[in-house]
């Protein structure tokens, strides 16, 4: 069965990037050159960005079935595609930029599970975060390509999501309901997590 897709809610975190002045680009270029001196053969670069450099939205999506159905990877892919479609509708100005995804929590029949594959259920619920950072990509990629070449793999992560996931993995038996305050250099984010799912997030001009 294909099931029925139901968007329950979504939240967003967004700032418009204002960096890109000649002095800023010069400092960025200098910092990456310094990194190249210590790691000339670097093959993968992970960039953690604050809200001012990207767009992040989290969706809690539910798929229901008329009768108990075995959960497959295809069902998970369908929900991921729905999150992608919603993100492109909500953020048409960044829809052409690469999109990245992270699954916060998975529930079958209302119960949180680590892996739903092959489980039987009448409902499948995913908390999915989608993000894109076209301004930051446009700033970084030309410099990275100049220094390391086009073979460098670059990955981008929202710093508040990365911090929260690190906390969850570090304390797997800890509380699933908590608040995270990520205080950055330019902006800060306060996020609320409920049963392992991101349910609220607010950016602050503090840092």
Proportion in β-strands: 35-45%
* Overall mean pLDDT: 79
Largest sheet: 5 strands, antiparallel
Number of strands: 10
- Contiguous low-pLDDT stretches (5 residues minimum) are 9-17
Radius of gyration in whole Å, from Cα? 19 Å
Helix content range: 25-40%
Task: Provide tags for this entry.
207 residues
Describe the model:
The structure is a single chain. The chain has 207 residues and is an alpha+beta fold. It contains 4 helices and 10 strands, in the order E-H-E-E-H-E-E-E-H-E-H-E-E-E. It has helices at residues 22-38, 73-90, 134-148, 159-170; strands spanning 4-14, 44-49, 55-70, 100-108, 111-112, 120-132, 153-158, 178-183, 188-194, 197-204. It has a 5-stranded antiparallel beta sheet, covered by helices on one side. A hairpin with a 4-residue loop joins strand 8 (178-183) and strand 9. Helix 1 crosses helix 3 (134-148). Residues 9-17 have low confidence and may be disordered.
Q: What's a concise summary of this model?
A:
This protein is 30% helix and 41% strand. It has 4 helices and 10 strands.
Layout of SSEs?
Blueprint: E1 4-14, H1 22-38, E2 44-49, E3 55-70, H2 73-90, E4 100-108, E5 111-112, E6 120-132, H3 134-148, E7 153-158, H4 159-170, E8 178-183, E9 188-194, E10 197-204
Helix pairs in contact: 1-3
């Amino acid at each position: 069965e294909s099931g029925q897709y139901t968007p329950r809610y979504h939240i967003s975190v967004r700032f418009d990037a204002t960096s890109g002045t000649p002095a800023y680009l010069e400092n960025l270029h200098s910092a990456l050159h310094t990194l190249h001196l210590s790691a000339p053969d670097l093959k993968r670069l992970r960039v953690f960005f604050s809200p001012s450099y990207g767009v992040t939205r989290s969706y809690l999506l539910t798929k229901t079935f008329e009768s108990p159905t075995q959960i497959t990877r295809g069902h998970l892919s369908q929900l991921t595609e729905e999150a992608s479609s919603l993100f492109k509708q909500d953020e048409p100005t960044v829809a052409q930029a690469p999109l990245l995804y992270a699954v916060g929590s998975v529930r079958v029949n209302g119960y949180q599970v680590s892996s739903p594959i092959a489980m039987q259920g009448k409902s499948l619920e995913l908390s999915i975060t989608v993000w894109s950072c076209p301004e930051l990509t446009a700033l970084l990629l030309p410099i990275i390509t100049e220094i390391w070449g086009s073979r460098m793999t670059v990955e981008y992560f929202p710093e508040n999501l990365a911090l929260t996931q690190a906390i969850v993995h570090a304390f797997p038996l800890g509380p699933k309901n908590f608040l995270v305050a990520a205080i950055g250099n330019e902006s800060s984010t306060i996020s609320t997590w409920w049963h392992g799912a991101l349910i609220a997030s607010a950016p602050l001009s503090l840092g």
